[in-house]
Write a structure and sequence with these properties.
By secondary structure, the protein is an alpha+beta fold. Helices cover about 25% and strands about 25% of the residues. Helix 1 (about 5-15) packs across helix 2 and helix 1 (about 5-15) crosses helix 3 (about 100-110). The relative contact order is 0.23.
Length: about 190
Amino acid sequence: MTADEAYAILSGHCQFEVGKFYGHVEGLSLGTGLLYNDVRAPEFDQEQSVFMTVERQAYVLTHECDIDPANERAFNDHLLICPVIRVEDFVAEFEAEFSNRDALVGFLAAAARRQVSRVVFLPASPGLEQGGFLYLNALASTHVSVFSHQRPFAAVSAFGLQVIDYALQNHLLRQKAERLALGEYAH
């Protein structure tokens, strides 16, 4: 499968209007809703069983007031990011892992319909020409200095932020599937 075919499946099954997802990037401060290239962040290397530092595309999750250098507060030197997996990289890496083309098509369609909570489909934009995924199970932090000489390549709109915020809430705050004790401490 090509990245163009994968993107056609994703955009064809997407339940929101992709044209409303992005807004203007000019004049926005470092913070929530911005997408950047070359963000230095940790990535796990399975072969060596260690975290390495890589540069990748990332979406900023931390609100701008929590990292504004003008706000003299403790704990404002790191921010949360979510890695962006480009559709072409996903297809190249995972096509062999799916038993057949139908399984890959099914995954892409389910991801676009928000039935796969660990990823959020990102429509195409400048800098992300064939779309991508936010990989919510790989949230990480990095230092604000990583962004000192960078400009975002895209910014989500208020609508796009709402889509991502809902996905984050669903993924991170949904009820546990297994039943938990009602407050009794077991030794």
